[in-house]
Amino acid sequence: MTVEHTAVDEDLAAYVLRLGDDALVLCQRLCALVTRAPTIEEDLALANIALDLLGHARTLLAYSGRLDGTGRTEDELAYHRTERQFHSALLVELVPGDFAVTIARQLVYAHYSRLLWSALEKSSDDTLAAFGARASREVEYHQMHADQWTVRLGRGTAESRRRMQAGLDLVWPYAAELFAADALVDRLDARGSAVAPARLREEWEREVAAVLDEARLTPPKPSWQATGGREGLHTEAFAPLLAEFRSVRLQYPGGTW
Questions:
Q1: How much is the CA Rg of the chain, to the nearest whole Å?
Q2: pLDDT at residue 22, rounded to an integer
Q3: Can you tell me the distance from the alpha carbon of 9 to that of 66, in angstroms, rounded to the nearest whole number?
Q4: Each residue of 88-123: pLDDT tens digit?
Q5: Do 142 and 110 form a contact (C-beta atoms < 8 A)?
Q6: Chain-centre distance for alpha carbon 133
Q7: pLDDT at residue 5 above 60?
Q8: Which one of 3, 54, 127, 201 is at 20 to 30 Å from 194 when CA atoms are compared?
């Protein structure tokens, strides 16, 4: 059983909120692919991954609402913030292209999130540590799914390899933002509550490079890096996603998940 954190902690609230936003936005992107995946089995696989992410988002957003002292619920945080008040990484909001783009993004994010949740199992915050222990087990499947499809597409036909490489080239500039340092995370890392993501990057690079090597794909070397999502600056694709996500809530005010 987790121990509820009752003291106001604005730094930790902001950190937990950004992690919840990542999960929520990626969940919505994956949900949009259901019935559009290459096979029925992949419809189910992506739906199950999205459900895991939705569960992560609910837990993290609700915890943020307790930590910041406002008592806002996960619904209030999900549905009643402006675009600039979301702090998700730009990677998760990208419009999915073909299936290879989705797999490329999942490869980047699943390896990052598994390393992050595993590291947070040692957080000095009891609630975050308990969540990390549960989430790290769940995202092992997300990682396995992405790894297997990366290899399958990379070693399949010439066309599947071309598309998988193109997907990697597209999403790679957005990976850097996941590992970017900032003052908030540095403060929390120093006190043991959070994990500075830069400390995860070397292992992430090793893991992903091994998958790409098996897939006979080339690790991209982007000439630029995406930034801004953590500060609430999003791509043009984010506003339509948010509008669609909120549409039922606006029709039925007061509804809950």
A1: 18
A2: 98
A3: 9
A4: 999 999 998 889 999 999 999 999 999 999 999 999
A5: yes
A6: 17
A7: no
A8: 54
